[in-house]
């Protein structure tokens, strides 16, 4: 079953993204920080990543290169959360 990792520091935006990307039978894994995803991600996780580009700490810009090396299998969609608020 696919897992959709929704990463955004804003709870309301995470909830909107889960509703927007609603896919039957998908499992959603909303997370608040890129570092949490990267620490938990491994090659056993299957699905895609939807992440905010502008987050405190490790932004989506910073994490993009790193998570491409850590999780090269994952399709990604990066957004600018300012457009969703």
Topology:
Layout: E1 3-7, H1 11-20, E2 27-31, H2 34-40, E3 47-52, H3 60-70, E4 76-79
Parallel strand pairs: 1-2, 1-3, 3-4
Task: Summarize the structure in short.
This protein has one domain (about 5-85): Response regulator (Rossmann fold). The protein is about 35% helix and about 25% strand.
Structurally, the number of domains stands at: 1
Assembly type: single chain
Please, how many helices? 3
Secondary structure: helix percent = 25-40%
Main sheet: strand order: 2-1-3-4
Q: Termini separation (Å)?
A: 30 Å
Form type: globular
Order of helices and strands: EHEHEHE
Mean pLDDT: 77
What radius of gyration results from the CA coordinates? 12 Å
Helix/strand structural class: alpha/beta
Q: Major sheet: size, sense and barrel closure?
A: 4 strands, parallel
State the low-pLDDT regions, or none.
none
| CATH-assigned fold name | Rossmann fold
CATH superfamily: Response regulator
Name of the CATH first level: Alpha Beta
Strand percentage: 15-25%
């Amino acid at each position: 079953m696919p897992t959709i990792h929704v990463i955004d520091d804003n709870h309301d935006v995470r909830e909107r993204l889960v509703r927007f990307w609603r896919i039957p039978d998908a499992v959603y894994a909303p997370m608040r920080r890129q570092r949490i995803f990267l620490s938990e991600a491994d090659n056993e996780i299957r699905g895609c990543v939807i992440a905010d580009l502008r987050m405190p700490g490790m932004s989506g810009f910073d994490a993009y290169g790193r998570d491409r090396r850590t999780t090269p299998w994952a399709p990604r969609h990066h957004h600018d959360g300012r457009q969703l608020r």
